[in-house]
Amino acid sequence: MSHCVKHELMLCCFYSLSSSRCRKSDNEMKPKTPPASACHDHNKAGQELCYICLQRTQQNSPLYFSEERRRREIEEEQLIQQYQMLKDQDTFFKHQMRSLANREQNQKNAAYNLGVAEAVRTHKNEKPGFYKSCLFDKRPFSPEIKALKQEEHIQGLLKQIDTRREKEIKQRENKELMERLEQVQLTEELAAQRAKYIQDKMEEKECYKRALDAQIKNRFPQLPISEPDSFEPLFGRDETELMVETRKREQNCMRQQQEAAASHKRKAILNHLVDQKRDLLMLQKTQQQHLADRDAELERVKKMNQSLLEDWKQSAEMKRQRDWEEKAFERASDKLFLLDQCDKYRRCKQCQRSTSNGGHSHQWPLKKHLQGSGLFV
Question: What percent of the chain has pLDDT over 90?
Fold first, then answer.
């Protein structure tokens, strides 16, 4: 109820403020009387407007809305602030009511949960007055159908046990067989390695034996038999021939060495001459390049000096021309520019015509009578 009352008050305030604003806007649209002239004895002396612009200015009745517009903006801002305050209050009230409702609901839920928990705990703690299990002394036996099913289940279980036992036995036998096969294979590999080792050893022994036999067969002969009763010398019988051969061999060796030394010396001299010739050619080429570079540098310096001289002449001529123009400008009168000459003619600040303008125009009408002729143009 309070929420509805606040909402109605807010709407009434808004409508009242809007109606007052409308009345003020109607008052603003009414024209205002022009303000009285500040100077009554002006007599149009020193006026800055032409006749036409002056008449228009006097006949205008301006309307000033700046103050009213400013006041209206202030009132609108106040209205918006009041509306925003009412809206904030309404929002706060709604939020508070929602919080209270949530709090009440939470309290109800907590009370309900507490009651349920207490009831469950009480029910658990209660001790029953009787036992739920019962013994029947005169209960009949199970029917034969169940017995047959039990027998089938027992047979199935026994069959599964036998199958599992057979499977385990078969796996064990396979494992033992694989182990025996691995042992046999390992034994065969060891025997093959042993036989190969023995064979390699026998072959090596045969090789050594053949080598010893070859050495014994190809050994040097024994010393000659001594001759104790010999009268002639056994050693040094052909010493002259040996000396001649030795001398010839030495002469040949010396001649070859001399020829090799001469050829080496000749080759060194030729290499030296070739190096000298190459150095001479390189020096000549370097000298020619130096002369060419010097000529090019001299030519460049000459061209640069010539260009600088031409630039200096051109700059001097331009400076002389500027000096002449400045002197000519100084000799001219002060009223050289057109704008300076127009200062002595007064113009209207609105239409930019002369102050003596009375409404005439520079445009001719469609029909104008020329004096001294009977023609209409």
Answer: 41
